[in-house]
Amino acid sequence: MPEAASSAPPATPGTPPVVPTTSEPHPSESSIAISISEFRGLCHTLQTLTATQGVLA
Fold first, then answer.
1. Angle made by CA atoms 28, 20, 43, in degrees to the nearest 5
2. Which tens digit of pLDDT belongs to each residue from 10-38?
3. What is the helix, strand, coil percentage profile of the chain, to 5?
4. Total-model pTM
5. With the C-alpha atoms ordered 5, 53, 34, 16, is the resulting torsion angle positive or negative?
6. How far is CA 30 from the centre of its chain?
7. CB neighbours of 2 closer than 8 A, spacing ≥ 6?
8. Is the pLDDT of residue 51 over 50?
């Protein structure tokens, strides 16, 4: 059976994904709340790791 393609557009670097507040998480997924500064720090770390991987590849 083919997998369903995601209808969400790819997230641009530095822009948090838009998640509807009415959506319920999948039963196998848990959710956490983090501050916006922590989220931005994680985005920056991901961008750094992605750039580093590109240089090493």
1. 80
2. 555 566 666 556 666 677 888 899 999 99
3. 35, 0, 65
4. 0.46
5. negative
6. 15
7. none
8. yes
